[in-house]
Amino acid sequence: MEFFERFAIPHPSPAIYASMVAIGLTVIAIIVGLTYFKKWGYLWREWITTVDHKRIGIMYLISALLMLFRGGVDAIMMRAQLAVPENTLLDSQHYNEIFSTHGVVMIIFMAMPFIIALMNYIVPLQIGARDVAFPRLNALSFWLFFMGAMLFNISFVIGGSPDAGWTSYFPLAGNEFSKSVGTNYYMIAIQIAGLGTLMTGINFIATILKMRAPGMTLMKMPMFTWSALITNIIIVFAFPVLTVALAMGTMDRLFATHFFTTGNGGMDMLWANLFWVWGHPEVYILILPAFGVYSEVIPTFARRNLYGYRSMVWSMVIICLLSFLVWVHHFFTMGQGALVNSIFSITTMAIAVPTGIKIFNWLFTLWKGKIRITTPMLYSLLFIPIFTIGGVTGVMLAMSAADYQYHNTMFLVAHFHLVIIPGVVFAMLAGLTYWWPKMFGFMLNERIGKWAAWLIGIGTCVAFFPMFISGLDGQARRMFTYSEATGFGIWNMIAFFGAIMLAVGFVLIVYNIYYSTRYASRDIPADPWDARSLEWATHSPVPEYNFAITPDVNSRDAFWNHKKNNQKLFKGDYQEIHMPNNSGVPFIMSALFFVFGFAMVFSVWILAIISAIGIFACMGHRSLEKDHGHHLSVDHIKETEEKLGGANS
Amino acid sequence: MKELFPRKQLLGFVSSLILTIVALLVYFLDFSFTVGLTILLITAFTQAALQLVVFMHAGETKDRGAIYTNIYYGIIIALLTIFGSLLALAWGYV
Ligand code: HEM
Ligand SMILES: [Cu+2]
Questions:
Q1: Carries keyword Membrane (chain A) (predicted)?
Q2: From chain A, which residues contact B within 8 Å (Cβ)?
Q3: I need a labelling partner for A546 at 20 to 30 A (CA). Which of A147, A187, A608, B32 fits?
Q4: What are the respective helix, strand and coil percentages of chain A, to the nearest 5?
Q5: What burial letters (b/e) apply to A395-431, b meaning 16+ CB within 10 Å?
Q6: In the structure, what pLDDT confidence band is assigned to residue A53 with cuts at 50, 70 and 90?
Q7: Other beta carbons less than 10 A from residue A156's beta carbon
Q8: What residues does ligand 1 touch, defined as CB less than 6 Å away?
Q9: Rounded (5°) CA angle A260-A155-A63
């Protein structure tokens, strides 16, 4: 019995028990449903073992949307708790757990897979490739991410959630102050997902550098692909720092080492330092693909080519370097001297310059454009002003002397939500709506889509602007309640309304997906938006080999010139196509990682050792296995092309 | 005959052995902490560079530009991170 005690929830509540029941029922329903409809084989063959970048992209997308709802429920609970003074909806411990998991879920398990979903689906198409450079590795990336996310998400029903903030600062996150296994989950689940992300980084750099269609020089790449390249470079240089920090944190918690302890030669501040060495580049990992999406959407719907292509590229290259030079701005108040703070203040303000350049480029693209306001465009237009407010308040925070006032108040919370929400969430929703017809062969309803966009746009402002005021008045972040005398009540009530608007907006998006799946016309052209880049040159939905004939690129807007100026894009005849084989090993290996992680969280060493052996066995299998892929015959290609609406040249 | 003899590889192999032995000496001989660590750092980085260039063929394909850009970028980021951390946590800490 003693053995099982460790799995109990240290701080239970009826809501958690209800969730346990709900999770149990959902799992049973899924299993019964799959069995009843005889879908196990389909699931295994078409999805679990797939190495197709498009399917992996869609799986990332589904995970991201699920996590958006998990994180969204957390958010609504927090806003509800704070809506009135001295509320007792949540107690302090639950509040701590909720804001910690909210942050991790939103950044690591929602925003990251969302950007990786779009990169997976779109980048190979935009560069005219058949797949990513290492399709099998791509599947492993996804499954590692997925298992990491699942491991993190079971924490609240088995053993207890992490409660030391998404930043998990030591010494609070150490064994002395965080006694439950919650922080073990944090360390290990993020580690597993992070390994997947690191592999994605390597994979996409190789893909973009090596697999571009003939004629597509770097300076002819579409801007979204450029942003993906830079993002993945940042991933490869930033994530190892997180890996190391998490490994050290895990050892501190499980094996009594003293990296981040306050005594015995440990240094708690080193965690904060390493966390932000990764953490600040991470915010640019999130924002750059979003910039890429806007750089596709805005020219398409302003019907002009992107203003200042070169300066767009250069500003991203500069951001790529500068994003590694500013991390100390997250702990100006930790005790370093004025000189250090001044240096990092200046680098931080400098990073606003390339960001500003991009904003102006979009504005100039819009200038004199023939603007069509579609849903993706609406998100882009809402993004520009709201993000600018977020950015400007960032520069305020960047002044280290002033930051002593703002730090850890709701002002900071307002800043980062007003950059991340328009930056990442709007962009991903814009990208989702924009590329939806490419992915699924029908369009999302524009009317519902615009309602959702307006609700989310206005909801963001209503939810976060009041925090600037309450923050300057002294409301601290991460506090589970406040007294009536503080006068914060009104601002938090307004913010609660904003949060409700956001929630309604997201529900509308789900409804839109349902509605359009049922009613939208399937009879749409391959290029329904009259867009500019190569992904629109193939059919919708895209056949498994992407392009029957590899396109020939000789200008920045090759597809546009192909449409408008009769430049030939597809030269030559069909040829046999070499495709990679599916494999179940990435899934099995990641499942073993899940077991390993779970065993580590609860210190069940025998299980950990067995699953670790399994993981190495999978790697061994991969090293020895002979897998040469398969060939699609010319006849097969012809047949598919005819079925999809004839040769597309 | 001259082209067939793998002079570069052989020299590389011998140098990497020497570097390993020098690093090992730090363990067996009684250096001060600073001297020992200096030797380790120098031998480690020379060793890594040697392996990359001689045995992993950086610079022998037409990806040379991308590979070296990556390595230099990595070195720059690593140095900035290390010295930045030292600045924040040790030298500039009051
Ligand atoms: C205009 C450029 C930006 C500047 C000058 C800037 C500046 C800052 C500063 C100085 C802080 C720390 C404040 C404090 O802790 O007291 C901060 C926090 C933060 N920023 Fe920004 N920022 C910028 C853009 C962004 C972007 C684009 C994102 C994300 C996409 C972002 C996400 C965050 C997050 C998540 C935090 C808070 C993390 C935490 O403590 O939990 N920032 N920013
Ligand atoms: Cu930052």
A1: yes
A2: 209-210, 233, 237, 241, 267, 269-270, 273-274, 277, 321, 324-325, 327-328, 334-337, 339-340, 343-344
A3: A147
A4: 70, 0, 30
A5: bebbbbeebeebbebbbbbbbbbbbbbbbbbbbbbbb
A6: very high
A7: 24
A8: A 167, 283, 286-287, 329-330, 348, 351-352, 355, 391, 394-395, 397-398, 403, 406-407, 412, 415-416, 419-420, 423
A9: 105
pLDDT at B2: 66
B85 at A interface, C-beta within 8 A: yes
Distance separating alpha carbons of residues A457 and A468, to the nearest angstrom? 17
What's the pLDDT tens digit per position in A598-609?
Answer: 999 999 999 999
Q: How far apart are CA A191 and CA A186, in angstroms?
A: 8
Predicted pLDDT at A648 = 47
Does pTM top 0.80 for this prediction? Answer: yes
Q: Enter the tokens of residue A270.
A: 């080193």
Residue nearest to atom 19 of ligand 1 (CA): A416
Q: Which residue has the higher pLDDT, A451 or A25?
A: A451
Q: What residue in B sits closest to A273 (Cα-Cα)? A: B85
Please, which pLDDT band fits residue B1 given cuts at 50, 70 and 90? low
Contacts of A105 (CB under 8 A, 6+ apart): A67, A70, A71, A74, A152, A153
Q: Which residue of A has its CA nearest to B89?
A: A336
Residue type at A612 in one-letter notation: A
Set out the domains of chain A in order of their start, with CATH numbers: 2-519+532-583+627-643 (1.20.210.10)
pLDDT in the model for residue A647: 45
Tens of pLDDT, residue by residue over B43-87, are: 999 999 999 888 888 878 888 888 888 889 999 999 999 999 999
Confidence (pLDDT) at A50: 94
- d(CA A105, CA A107) in angstroms, rounded, equals 6
Q: Per the structure block, which two tokens stand in for A32?
A: 């019964």
